[in-house]
Structure formats: C-alpha cells, structure tokens
Amino acid sequence: GGGWCNDAPSCAARAGTRRGSTRLMSKLEVFSGVLSNDPARNPDFYNWNRVKLRYCDGGSFAGDSEFRNGSSVIYMRGQRIWDAIIADLLTKGLAKAEKVLLSGCSAGGLATFFHCDNLGELLGGVATVKCMSDAGFFLDVDDISGNNSIRPFFSSLVALQGAEKNLNKDCLNSTLDPYLCFFPQYALQNIKTPYFILNSAYDVYQFHHIFVPPSSDPRGHWSRCKADPSACSTLQIATLQGLRSAMLTALKLFEGEPEVGMFINSCFAHCQSELQDTWFAPNSPTLDNETIAELVGDWYFERGAAQEIDCAYPCDSTCHNIIPSNQVSYWEMQMHMQGWVFEFGVYLCRVYLFIFSHDILQVGN
User: Family assignment (predicted)?
Assistant: First the structure.
C-alpha cells in the first residue's frame, strides 16, 4: 500500500520517491479484479467507466497544510488533489453518471471513507453513490506489549498535515481528540452514504505494523510467524485471535445495517479487490459460497443480504494468504498470466481510489 507520512523528515523523503511524486510513478497500470473489463472476471462492473487516482500525498487525500524549515517548504495537498481531480472529472461526464462506486485499497481504502459523503454531495443526490473500502478498516488497537502505537502516529499525521478540517464534522463534534476521526470505527458512525467493508480479520499490514510492530517484538520471536502463518505457534495463533476480536468488536455496531456490506474473511492478506484470484476466479476466497465480487454486487445492486464474517483462523480453506515478503512475486505471477510485464515493485508502492460511473465518462483529450 501507499501508507502515510506523519512528520517532516518522512514527508520530505516521500516527496522524492514514487510514493510522493507522479513523475516517478510507473507509466503502465493494469486493470484487473474489480477494474477488469472482462465480464467473465468482473461480472457486475466490467462495462463501467473506470478511473484510477494516483496516491502520493501520504495523508489519504485529507491533508492541506505547509511545513516550513528555513528555505525548505513541504506542501501537503491531499485534499486539494482530491478536489481538483473530482472537479475535472465532473466536466468530463461524471456529473451525468447514474451509478457510481468509489473504492480504494489500504490508505486509499481509508480515503474512501473520508470522501464518500463528499462525492455524493458533489453529484447532487442524483446518482446512486456507494463506496467500498478494501483493507482500509485500520483499528484503534493496542499491540501485544500493551502499547498503542497507531494512535500517536495518526495524531501526529493529522496535526502535521492539517487534516482535522477535512475529517467528518459530526465525528469531530463527538470527541475531544480529532485524530480519532482518522479511525474508521469512529468515523463510520457518521457516514450517510452506503458503504462496503472488505477486510481480512488478520490483515497482514495491521498484524505486522499495528498489532505486532517491531517495537513490541525486539527479539524477533514473531519473525517466522509473520513470514509464514503456518509457522505460528499455538500461543501466537491464540494471540492473533485478539486482532480478530478487536476487528469484530469494532464492526459490531454496523452489523445488520441494510446499507452496510461486509466481507470479513480469515485470510492473511491486505487488499483483495484488485487481484483477480481473490476478486473473482474459480478458486477465489468465498464466504457462504460467495466470492468477494458476488457479495459486492449483491450489496451494490441490492440483490440480497450482503454481510459475511468468517470463522476464526485456520478454518477457511479458500484463503489466499498473501504475505508482504512474497507479495511482489505473487503480483508478478498474476500479471504475467494476463500478458503484462512491468516493474512490479513500483506497482506495490501505491494505493488508489477508484471511481466507476455507469454513464459516459471522457478522460483525456
């Protein structure tokens, strides 16, 4: 995923990499999974217009501030980038859309929550606007040592990037700590637009960086478990159930809500909607015999109940466990199968927002 930056040094460093500048990003992108134009691979959305937004601001498209240090200036402009892109798309056909799905993965999945209501407002309530967040349900949870490292991280991010003014106003009015509204479990209580939560209960990013960050495991006892779930000890598996429990507790408030969809599986993965194998394929992960693509379609088109939560690991035999150490090779295999060859490491370093409209959308000249 594209991640975030929460202090001046990390944001300055990011600006000179493919995570912080479109000049350094790959020129070729692959549309697969939820972005595929093949009805056999993406039955509900294959014929929709698709737009992929480049993510480079390090603040989930929510920042708007400047940091000055002598003659050096860092401009954090995520919110302005979002505003400018949507304004441009509105002139190119988005304003005439009948159906729209806003989606994103990881930091882009978090951005989807932030901008869901805003997109609906910009379209004037005429279009059917819904939002899907893939691996964007980042938890407010203590790590295995009892510390909470994600709270101070998001707090410093919100402060540095001036994101508070762009977070959900109702959420901000309900707390004395604005950074808490960067967490979906608090912000979603105030979102009015229908949304779908696609997440693993053992999301590998949260497992590796929030629940068992390096600071909580100085002797590296979790290294083998992180690299290969089958190498986890019985005690480690029991500990990991705490991550799943925190996820299910946070989701409890949204269960049974008719406009909220969920696909919460018990796989070790992070981002499943853009990989063809995990989105819609003969061996895709399933819950109650439905793939991710089928359940998302049921939710968007209101064909039936669309909330599925998996049993605890290791019960699910349909999982595709995708660990960061082997994720590049996994993507490489997938893209070669589709006839694409490009720099895979570059692809994995970014997160996107996706906009789909079921009307004519013209992009470019």
Answer: Belongs to the pectinacetylesterase family.
| CA angle (273 as vertex; 268, 278 as ends), nearest 5 | 55
What is the residue extent of each domain of the chain?
Answer: 8-357
Q: C-alpha angle 80/271/7, rounded to 5°?
A: 45
Catalytic residue, candidates 134, 270, 277, 357: 270
Catalytic residue among 64, 203, 277, 310: 203
Active-site position among 32, 60, 103, 106: 106
The tokens describing 26, both together, are 């790959």
Tokens of 235: 């005690």
270 catalytic residue (yes or no): yes
User: What gap in Å lies between CA 358 and CA 334, rounded to an integer?
Assistant: 27
CA distance 244 to 310: 10
Q: Spell out, as residue ranges, where the chain has pLDDT lower than 50.
A: 326-354, 360-365
Strand pairing partners for 131? 102, 195
3-state secondary structure of 54: strand
Q: Which residues are CB-contacts of 135 (< 8 A; sequence separation ≥ 6)?
A: 1, 105, 106, 109, 198, 199, 200, 203, 205, 269, 270, 271, 272
Q: Which helix (DSSP H) or strand (DSSP E) does residue 195 occupy?
A: strand 195-200
User: Please, which residues bridge with residue 75 across strands?
Assistant: 66
- The DSSP code sequence of 89-122 is HHHTTGGG-SEEEEEEETHHHHHHHHHHHHHHHH
CA dist., res. 204 & res. 248, Å (int) = 16
The neighbouring-strand residues paired with 195 are: 131, 260
Q: Which amino acid is at 233?
A: S
Q: Is 106 a catalytic residue?
A: yes
115 is catalytic: no
Residues 6 or more apart whose CB falls under 8 angstroms from that of 251 comprise 137, 185, 197, 262, 264, 309
Strand 65-69 versus strand 72-76 pairing type: antiparallel
Structure confidence at residue 139 (pLDDT): 98
Tens digits of residue pLDDT in 242-288? 999 999 999 999 999 999 999 999 999 999 999 999 999 999 999 99
Q: In the beta sheet, which residues pair with residue 260?
A: 195
Contact 81, 58 (CB under 8 A): no
